[in-house]
Design brief:
The structure is a homodimer. By secondary structure, chain A is an alpha/beta fold. Chain A contains 13 helices and 10 strands. At the A-B interface, strand 8, helix 4, helix 5 and helix 10 of A face strand 8, helix 4, helix 5 and helix 10 of B.
């Protein structure tokens, strides 16, 4: 039997998926975040997260790690492959190995390996696409200081800016201010601004506060609605910027949105409307999660054109020990 | 004889000015930056900068520091007065003392103590104003993460964003990219982006690169011109936001622009155009530098309505030892 491995190593978690040669997903494993290879202890943390996720997938698949050699493996990491490829090679036995960035495996998953464009909006934002001839392009992904429009950190940034404008007396009133103060215990938006510059809040914690923009937009807060709509539009612009690089104007192109920010219904709706306003462009739901996108890539490394199938536990074995 | 002291303590330098009771500026002294009271050694650095600038002003005025007690002193510091007022009190002998933030003394200088609004655009940006009845208001000043539109750091940010868009293939071509790479030795805009996130460049160093936006705008680079014009407009909006807080629509209001960014002629021109498009609003040149603004405030503390006059050295004494 030939076994294939796909890994999505992100800033929140590491997910490994093992498939057989006809696409059955026989095991999945999850571990902690997989970033920060550099810095003290980074190498160990990276190998631990990777090891835990793969071992958990192997255990679920009832495969013996000792004698296993994957036919092909594809691993996608946030922060890119440069500082990780050698570490992965030491750790993993695979006849063919590809180490890439997380956007590529997310794209392969969303588009089931076909050409298209994804817009990823988590804490930050980036668009990535691949044409039928293999050409790829990206737009954005410039981080919290220089870009990341439409990502969760930027949503909170816009919420705080609106709160500050209201507090300074030159912006429309918005419930965002009270809600921000309530959630953080700050007395004023200005005090919160200063606390955001300290180490008290991580960027992820600031980003997590963005749920209030969705919450208030759903209650009809005009300022919150405008922030959400602008974010949807900016994310669509990123996707269309990649489309423009890779696809002819008259070529049918599919765009997907991936990441936590798209759980916001209003943003998603606005994103889809803006994307579909472009000629010959349609929105599609992501078809597979990024770890399965990595598995699709692993299949393609050896010329296999199969898609992952997650079957009921009763098909691949007993339910014991299954995730 | 009664002596008055004004100090402008900024992130780049500390300037002290001593005046007599009829407004003659008899001594001026300059020292290093005056911020960062907190942190190791901060207290000493603060007192050293303050001491050096005041002693230099006293030396020029040929006044003996030992027996001198100022009738009134006003000191404005970047970062505000909260952590500095007590330190100043320990150090300085003044019958009446006011410790405030740098925007207030800059406003007093620019407006010669009269009502009005200033927009300060250095590395960051902020607007501050005072009405005839003493009410004050501010807009912006939210720092590089959440605001500072139109400041020098933001100008470089916009230049890099334009360079990245051009490099990714979805923005118009601009000379900004080549110029940024030339000045920093980076091979790509993306490489420069990543280096900007390290400690290699301070925020002030990044801000200093903004001169290329002016340079290319003067050469007719459309992208650079648009960045400059948008910055001028955003700075005008900050000023008008303060105007709206303090002055009635039909009340004649004066707005000034202060700080290095206004040295850019195109930006300044656009700022003035936007400011003057508002009803009953005019642009005025800043009348005195911030240190003399602090001196004006010192006079006002004791009810004096005199304006500083810097006279020829021959009037206040011999030219020896003059700045």
């Amino acid at each position: 039997m030939a076994w294939f491995l796909g890994v999505d190593g992100g800033q929140t978690s590491t997910i490994a998926a093992i498939g057989d040669e006809v696409g059955r997903v026989v095991g999945k494993g999850v571990a902690g975040p997989c970033n920060h290879v550099s810095g003290p202890g980074g190498r160990e943390r990276f190998l631990r997260a990777l090891g835990e996720s793969v071992r958990a997938a192997l255990a679920q698949a009832r495969l013996d790690p000792k004698h296993l050699r994957f036919t092909a493996a594809c691993l996608g990491f946030s922060g890119g492959p440069d500082d990780k490829a050698d570490l992965v090679r030491e750790f993993l036995h695979a006849e063919v190995l590809k180490v890439t960035h997380d956007a590529e495996v997310a794209l392969s998953g969303a588009m089931a390996g076909e050409p298209g464009v994804i817009v990823i909006a988590g804490t930050g934002s980036i668009a990535y696409g691949r044409a039928a001839d293999g050409r790829t392009a990206r737009a954005g992904g410039w981080g919290y200081l220089f870009g990341d429009e439409g990502g969760a950190f930027d949503l909170t940034r816009q919420a705080l800016r609106a709160a500050l404008r209201a507090e300074e007396g030159w912006g429309p009133p918005t419930g965002l201010r009270d809600r921000l103060l309530e959630l953080t215990g700050a007395r004023t938006a200005n005090e919160l601004l200063h606390r955001f510059y300290t180490t008290e809040f991580s960027r992820d914690q600031i980003a997590a506060l963005s749920v209030i923009v969705d919450e208030l937009a759903r209650k009809g807060d005009r300022v919150a609605m405008e922030i959400i709509e602008r974010a949807g539009q900016q994310l669509a612009e990123l996707g269309l910027a990649v489309r423009q690089q890779l696809f002819a104007r008259d070529e049918l192109t599919r765009i997907s949105g991936v990441g936590g920010v798209f759980h916001c219904a209003l943003l998603r709706e606005h994103f889809i409307r803006c994307v579909c306003a472009a000629p010959n462009t349609s929105y599609v739901e992501p078809q597979f999660e990024p770890a399965l996108g990595a598995l699709i890539e692993a299949y393609r490394l050896v010329g296999l054109r199969v898609l992952p199938r997650i079957e009921e536990p009763s098909v691949t074995g007993s339910a014991e020990g299954m995730l």
